[in-house]
Amino acid sequence: MDNDTPVAGIELGGTKAIAVRGCGMTVTEMRSFPTTTPDETLGQVIDVLAQWDAEEALAAIGIASFGPIRVATDAPDFGSILATPKPGWANTPVLGPVAERFACPIALDTDVNAAAMAEHAIGAAQGCSNTIYITIGTGLGAGILLDGKPVHGLLHPEAGHIRMRRAAGDDFAGVCPFHGDCAEGLLSGPALLARLPTHPGELAEDDPAWGPVGRDLAEMLAQLILTFSPQRIVIGGGVTNRQPHLLDKARAHIPQILAGYLTDIDAARLAYMICSPLLGDEAGPAGALALALKALAENR
């Protein structure tokens, strides 16, 4: 990895968009904008990248976008947002406007796949060939690396919309407009606002209302452990950043959910396996730079 290569990236989120530039994986500058309309948001970040490119030619650009987004390079709508509850963004081309402005190599992936790449390269998942990065905030997304490579296929992982076994007596309907009580509908920021008796920031860590939330998070994590055999699950996003006790609650439930099936998944292993991002809020921007370096390597 060339730590002197001038690259740039775009982290396109549902709430804000970040333009980032760096030398290799090292972030040197970031600019942030609210995610409003596609034209305004993409125009602002592209203008910043153009300014940086004029100062020093960019070797490559990475785009880490919220989803669902078409990541199959042979698809006619490659690089476009698909069906999304984000008003005005369905069927929006994201790659196209960037490719029209810059001649350098460009790579695109989901924001969570990119964050997983960054944590795998320089963060909490170094040396872990199978890595899952989960972000829980306005929505819930998961980026999955198998043998160090992001999972694509039919689309890309949408673990935020898996359905889960519910705890007895928990009748919260969920808030997902598509599925109701999928993982996102139960665990996202809007879900917590709807299911908890008061604002999450005002609810004591030992309040019993957190119990079903921790159980639901554990159920999702147990499914991912059984399905993808990760060595590390990194959990970021506003919900767990502000409520880190949820990770402890989830870890405590997982052995019971696994019911003795994986005998080496004990409390010590779970404390190591499930962790917060080492890169913190820079996981996404650093992931965009990782995509830029990937584009450069593939172009070479």
UniProtKB/TrEMBL annotation:
It comes from the Bacteria. Keywords: Magnesium, Metal-binding, Zinc. Its cofactor is Mg(2+). This is fructokinase. SUPFAM superfamilies: Actin-like ATPase domain. PANTHER family: FRUCTOKINASE, TRANSCRIPTIONAL REPRESSOR MPRA. One of its GO terms (molecular function) is fructokinase activity. PROSITE patterns: ROK. Its EC number is 2.7.1.4. It catalyses: D-fructose + ATP = D-fructose 6-phosphate + ADP + H(+). It holds the Pfam family ROK. Signal peptide: none annotated.
